[in-house]
Amino acid sequence: MNTPITIIGAGPAGLLLAHYLLRRGHYQIEIYESRPDPRLSTHDDQRTFPLAIQARGRKALSKIDNLEEKICQKGTFCQGTLVHQKKGKSRLIPRSNSILTIDRSVLSLVLLENLVKADNQTRLKIHFDHRCTQIKSQEKTLFFQTNNHEEIKVNYNILIGADGANSLVRDCFLENSSFNCQKNYVSDVYKSIYLPLNLPEKSLFLDKDKFHSIRLTENMRMLLVPQGENNLNGVVIFKQESNPFKNSKKPSDILKFLQENAGIIGQLIDIEEVESLMKRPISQVVTIQCNQFHQGDSILILGDAAHAVSPSLGQGCNSALEDAMIIDQLLDKYQDNWGKVMAEFTIQRVPDADALQELSNFTFPSKKSLLFEYFLRLRLSRLLRQWFPDKFSPPIFELVAETNLSYADILQRHQGWIKKVKQFQ
User: Which of 194, 202, 192 is nearest to 264 (CA)?
Assistant: First the structure.
């Protein structure tokens, strides 16, 4: 008899976990997602923001036959970052290995399509446009509202919360007095921006295998990632209190500001994109830090629901995909005993999640003097490692992006630098 599993959330973490569970052959999976079916959306509706899928994320994807290859076909590989200056100069921050980048919605779509193809729907049901409104954990019941305002009651056996930083599944942990959760907002906010990578008519050609960044003002910067042959997708990041788009500024004023301050990137922006940019909502990153990722033997949370982090190291999605792989490993270890799996997942994963919070928050300093020291340390580290590779550890971002070393171990190696940045933030 198949064991029923209910997953709330059809993002990358929930969908990859469903792949792992279906592969085990004795689970009945039901997934509930508040958003519409992405297979029915237009291209413009699908665009969200690019993700960097690094070593640990790719390892998790590679455990499912042919999945990593399909995702790589839809993504773009980048080798290093070009930091642009207003006057046209740029500085390359190289990477020893390429990083796969892909729009989040495209990643979810590939995972969804592969999941549906892997099963003939006998052991998998996916319900889109179903917003979870209430969870009664004592009764093991869920309540949903459809886009037609229909109220639905569902019973569950094992519940998996993959429903993001504002997780309703996590909220039901609050009835446990030992549960502690800190929810914070990153001071920076952002808007998505979509540009062409090349404009032949203006003889503008940006490297299609590099991340691109530029600081427009003290409190405003742009981060962009090539996607496909001629797309440059990214975000404009700024302090909430210094929003450049408020006070009813004209699109022409915003365009002039960007063209004067964004260097070569500013020349890629036209008035139509500025008008769209002004209409797009402002988004703010939420961070989540919890002391446990399970409740009893029937509820488990993973990904952003358990440990949402700042995007500075690009590890949010990677750590979420890694969660799914670790759950599968624990199911092997404990022979699908979910009570033991859930308890061990908390024991094993909370220290890594805590370490990732520290690394994401304090690897890159905001203080100018420390920023100079950071780049100096980076250059010296690379030089010394060429001579003494066994005595000097790689930089934090290389260990995080290019190895499967645990976040806790990486933090231990670089504790001195993290403490220094933390002291002066």
Answer: 202
